[in-house]
Amino acid sequence: MLAENQPANGGTTLNTVYGFIGLGNMGAPMCANLVAAGMSLRVFDAAGTAERTPQGAVVGDSIADLAANTDTIFLSLPDGKVTHAVCEEVLLAADRRVSRIVDFSTTGPEAAGAIGAKLGAAGITFVDAPVSGGRAGAVAGSLTVIASGPGGDVAQLSAAFDAVGGNTFHVGAVPGQAQAVKLLNNFLSATAMAATSEAVLFGQKFGVDISTILDCVNVSSGRNTASADKFPNRVVTGSYDAGFATALMTKDVALYLEQVRVAGTPENIGAVVSARWNAALTDMPESDFTEIYRHIAGESKTGE
Ligand code: NAD
Questions:
Q1: Structural domain for 189, as ranges
Q2: Burial label, 174 (beta-carbon count in 10 A; 0-12, 13-18, 19+)
């Protein structure tokens, strides 16, 4: 039995209280897994906290309330603008207790770098920690956590990262490096989804059944995350319920392209894929990202 304040879980003490802001598709199930791992959690969501709070977590009143009553705050917010605004509110909070913020959101390297610098100047450590694996991975606790920030902090967070994910990669010491890896990953996922939609439509035009196409591709060299997972589980079933909005995927691909242009690396395929997702979002603003198949097939509002 550990005495009070004796380090457990690599630097976490028994009195450590974690905060979580953003209880959406990803945040709510991640919170449930943190609570299940025995962590003391206080949570907040601007759209209504009580109804989104998993059993065992404490309902927080506001961002200031979490800043004053927790040691480490996790974020799972829509984009860098919102993360920035939430961090500003933390900095303005009276009686601030929090000393570390960990951002699970996809915000892009520039936003993560700027937020890290601002928090660092105020004595708050920032760990950039975007995740991959979708809502299903968040529910199962099998997300990939891509972290960049001080190695000691990432090590201290290992119990929390293990609770939400199966794999943690510490890709560098600087906030923003993890976002770069997350964006390139989502660009590949977005490309697979768009390209597989076009490829499947081509095969269907020749009268081949969609499941037969996928079965063949999935034991052949064209296999990818869309053909192996999203198509059989979300498109063929007609459920279109991956839990990741077209708006968020379009944001990620646009951020990727923007940052590729800043980096000066090749952008030919990035530009085409980003244009494809922009068109899908205009056509289907409230859709799940797997519905790009319906957009490309011309089944949606305007189609192609
Ligand atoms: P979501 O829109 O379902 O959840 C975001 C939550 O943040 C909402 O509940 C919203 O009310 C809350 N929020 C917004 N502004 C707030 C504020 N100012 N203060 C407090 N709460 C606020 O989004 P999501 O799908 O859960 O994604 C969250 C992040 O994770 C995004 O950056 C996304 O790109 C990333 N991501 C999503 C997935 C996925 O499959 N859904 C996978 C990997 C990464």
A1: 180-297
A2: middle
